[in-house]
């Protein structure tokens, strides 16, 4: 198989000129470019991408760490990254962890081995002390706020959004309020939700908080538990519109009227929430993904806050 040296010899140009042609460098005369391309075509030469990456000093590939797919929050962030990657001509490698710490480190090591130009972390399992050193080998961008100067971030002020939801429900006259979450107390989001709840309503009854909620089916089960309590909540803040939809379906099945008997608010403005006219907190996660991508390709370590919005519909 031909190599770059042979192509250079047959084209009558230097090896560096062949490299520039392979990398689509604009500073090559049309005459030399045509000569190189003719030899490449005649010899049916296929460039070794790894070799080109080494010459170019970049892979044009970005990794995105997600705990799992088929989740509305992570899917929206991934969607935002993919939007921008198509515009800019980058490839995206999806790196699912299922919150496995060792798997996350394995992916971060891809920066050290120069297999990726950068990594976007949508949600992490390791602490920042473990993650930050990998920023020495390539761009690391987080989708949550971090004060570490080595890591850029595109983030939402989640605590402010949780606090605004609970205060809104209180203003509407609700004092017995429950909420659902994905992960337990190991999650920063869950910790912030509990803190916002306590600031608004005081102590949290353990039965008014249900974790491990990801889907409509989980919402149905959460609705069954919460709406059969002796201290039945009059409002529920669900951690996603699909979960909220499940709670809504269960409430209707036992003749609890929304919003007369029960107020429901979800998150991320999903189609099911629109169809059922559920209020929702839109954290604009597609924009978070898009901004995270921009930080990566611009080699920026800025901290960029994306505004959230509360969408009011007839479920409250």
TrEMBL record:
UniProt-listed CDD domains: HTH_LacI, PBP1_CcpB-like
Keywords: DNA-binding, Transcription, Transcription regulation
SUPFAM superfamilies: lambda repressor-like DNA-binding domains, Periplasmic binding protein-like I
Domain HTH lacI-type: 2-56
Pfam family, one: Peripla_BP_1
Tree of life domain: Bacteria
Entry-linked InterPro entries: HTH_LacI, Lambda_DNA-bd_dom_sf, Peripla_BP/Lac1_sug-bd_dom, Peripla_BP_I
Gene3D superfamilies, alphabetized: 3.40.50.2300, lambda repressor-like DNA-binding domains
Coiled-coil stretches: none
UniProt protein name: LacI family transcriptional regulator
Species this protein is from: Paenibacillus segetis
